[in-house]
Amino acid sequence: IGFGLLTCDDDAQARDRAGLEGSGEDKGFEAAHAAFATAALMDAFPLPA
């Protein structure tokens, strides 16, 4: 399970972090990437039964 939360002071910051065309960041993509990377690590190192 992944969780990404944008904390922004105004609409301009939110738009810049949302991954829209011309924005500087894509925090949603970063959160999804972190969730998949974590899942891959958990598969690579399973917990003992």
From TrEMBL:
InterPro entries (alphabetical): LS/RS, LS/RS_sf
Pathway per the UniProt entry: Cofactor biosynthesis; riboflavin biosynthesis
Keywords of this entry: Riboflavin biosynthesis, Transferase
Pfam families on file: DMRL_synthase
Top-level division of the source organism's lineage: Bacteria
MF-aspect GO terms: transferase activity
Alphabetical list of Gene3D superfamilies matching this protein: Lumazine/riboflavin synthase
GO BP of this protein: riboflavin biosynthetic process
GO cellular component: riboflavin synthase complex
Protein family per UniProt: Belongs to the DMRL synthase family.
Protein name: 6,7-dimethyl-8-ribityllumazine synthase
Classification of source organism: Bacteria, Bacillati, Actinomycetota, Actinomycetes, Micrococcales
